[in-house]
């Protein structure tokens, strides 16, 4: 019975029914949140993953195929993949031991000395435009690698390599 109700709500969601989507969210969000929290082990990340998953569910509700599993199974797979993307993103950030100077926001940039700002701008100018854009999207805008890939219309592997090589060049240029 639960599957039939989810299927009905998803069908209405595909037609743009916001109330049906809200009902689907109420019925399924505890399961998706629990899965994301178990994978990510951080409440904030799990909340972000669930939110991103529901945005994708809203946009792709018409693409569900019942022959491939239940609605909940489909939704769980979307949430799991989003959680995996986030894990990869945060793992890469931690493994590369990126210095905070590279990840500065606008408020932090104001605290830098004039010489530091000049050096940072010089180093950023040394990057290829695509590297600079990918780093900006990933670290200043907070996008996942998958989101950067979509935004830049580039393969995921290329995007990851672009970001990694760009960060390595920045570290060398900044003497980190």
UniProtKB/TrEMBL annotation:
GO terms for biological process: DNA-templated transcription initiation. Pfam families: Sigma70_r2, Sigma70_r4. GO terms for molecular function: DNA binding; sigma factor activity. SUPFAM superfamilies: Sigma2 domain of RNA polymerase sigma factors (SSF88946), Sigma3 and sigma4 domains of RNA polymerase sigma factors (SSF88659). The keyword GTP-binding does not apply. CDD domains: Sigma70_r4. Residues 24-88, 123-171 form the RNA polymerase sigma-70 region domain. InterPro entries: RNA_pol_sigma-70-like (IPR039425), RNA_pol_sigma-70_dom (IPR014284), RNA_pol_sigma70_r2 (IPR007627), RNA_pol_sigma70_r4 (IPR007630), RNA_pol_sigma_r2 (IPR013325), RNA_pol_sigma_r3/r4-like (IPR013324), WH-like_DNA-bd_sf (IPR036388). Keywords: DNA-binding, Sigma factor, Transcription, Transcription regulation. The keyword Nucleotide-binding does not apply. PANTHER family: RNA POLYMERASE ECF-TYPE SIGMA FACTO, RNA POLYMERASE SIGMA FACTOR SIGZ. Belongs to the sigma-70 factor family. ECF subfamily. This is RNA polymerase subunit sigma-70. The lineage of its organism: Bacteria, Pseudomonadati, Pseudomonadota, Gammaproteobacteria, Alteromonadales.
């Amino acid at each position: 019975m639960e599957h039939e109700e989810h299927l009905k709500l998803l069908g209405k969601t595909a037609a743009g029914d916001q109330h049906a989507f809200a009902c689907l969210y109420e019925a399924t969000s505890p399961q998706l949140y629990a899965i994301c929290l178990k994978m990510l082990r951080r409440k904030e990340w799990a909340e972000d993953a669930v939110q991103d998953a529901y945005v994708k569910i809203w946009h792709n509700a018409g693409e569900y195929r019942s022959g491939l599993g239940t609605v909940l199974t489909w939704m769980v797979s979307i949430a799991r993949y989003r959680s995996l993307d986030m894990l990869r993103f945060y793992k890469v950030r931690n493994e590369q031991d990126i210095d905070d100077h590279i990840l500065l926001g606008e408020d932090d940039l104001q605290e830098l000395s004039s010489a530091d700002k000049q050096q940072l701008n010089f180093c950023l100018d040394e990057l290829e435009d695509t590297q600079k854009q990918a780093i900006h999207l990933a670290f200043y805008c907070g996008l996942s690698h998958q989101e950067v890939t979509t935004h830049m219309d580039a393969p995921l592997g290329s995007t990851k390599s672009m970001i990694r090589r760009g960060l390595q060049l920045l570290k060398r240029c900044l003497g980190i």
